[in-house]
Amino acid sequence: MSNKQGIYLFSPSSAVADPDAVERARQNLTAEGFRTVVDRGALAVHQRFAGTDAQRLAALGRALKQKQPIVMATRGGYGLGRLLPLIDWKAVADSGKRFVGMSDFTAFNLALLAQTGAVSYSGATAVADFGGKKVDELTGALFGELMRGELEILSFETEDADAVDCRGILWGGTLAMVASLVGTPYMPRIRGGILFLEDVAEHPYRVERMLTQLWQAGILQKQKAILLGHFTNYRLAPHDAGFDMPAVVKWLRRTVKVPVLTGLPYGHIASKATLPIGKKIGVATEPGLVHLVLDEHDHDHDHGDGHGHDEDHDHDHGHGAHAHAGHAGHGH
């Protein structure tokens, strides 16, 4: 493929455990049609972090100044929360870069949206998704199509979704990170949004506790829909006695009275979509299927005051020509 888009890989959170995985990620991203450049601090280690706070901030500074259009986190883990007050968010937005990451990177995605209204991306990371011997076909295809502006519609199968047909700003990420921002200047104030959530290694009672925080903070009930990705790697105990993730979903519906849709191909899983955070999208259901309309080709954009706090803000990146209706899990 000519005219390859470039990806700059940097490490804003935890240290990379296996340097070879970054090299494999480079090779696999090249095979997906991207050129890659690795930040010189990407493999740094300080305690559990990819370098000291100052080193990781410097890496972000380099990412803003270099010429590749896409900036991708090597991995999540822990560490971005410490940096949020030290980052020049206007400079991040003004760089025009497309920032991609997941998990701990949720803090970056949401802080950028709260502070500037700019769109960024949640889903693929270098090591988890491109650092293995093989790349999951769906993950690679969906990431590539979104970055090239070709992904108009993402459709996925669901066993449990309330009927809905609405538009709103898509936002969210890893539930623990979303909850950690409540009450801070880095929590987007979005009314009429479409909130998506996932988490890993959190027992259903912890998931419910974080959802309770978002509900009691007045956040969940202001959304038009709540999309649930995959909640993985937890173990139920005998005394749970039937209290499981489906029970939490049932409680959520009953309590918040907002449409809840499950099955979003997003989470700490092999097959995942990359999603635009801060972009206005459409959501529509039919029996057993949910359609996310990511690109509607409308050229009438109202950027409002640029702070992304109002459901009418529309930040749009690219207008692709290829509709994609991949049913997640069925590959291409």
Task: Give a description of the structure.
It is a single chain. By secondary structure, the protein is an alpha/beta fold. It has 2 domains: 1-151, 3-Layer(aba) Sandwich (Rossmann fold), CATH 3.40.50.10740; 152-297, LD-carboxypeptidase A C-terminal domain-like (Glucose Oxidase, domain 1). Helices cover 28% and strands 21% of the residues. The chain has 10 helices and 13 strands. It has helices at residues 19-31, 53-65, 80-83, 89-94, 106-116, 126-130, 137-147, 175-180, 204-216, 245-256; strands spanning 5-10, 34-38, 70-73, 98-101, 120-122, 153-157, 165-174, 194-200, 225-232, 260-262, 275-277, 280-286, 289-293. The strands form 2 sheets. It has a 7-stranded mixed sheet with strand order 6-13-12-7-8-9-10. It has a 6-stranded mixed sheet with strand order 2-1-3-4-5-11. Helix 8 links the parallel strand 7 (165-174) and strand 8. Helix 9 (204-216) packs parallel to helix 10. The longest helix is centred in the first third of the chain and has 13 residues, at 19-31. It starts with a strand and ends in a 39-residue tail after the last strand. Residues 299-332 have low confidence and may be disordered. The active site is at 103 (nucleophile), 198 (charge relay system), 268 (charge relay system). Residues 297-319 have a biased composition (Basic and acidic residues). It comes from Bordetella genomosp. 10.
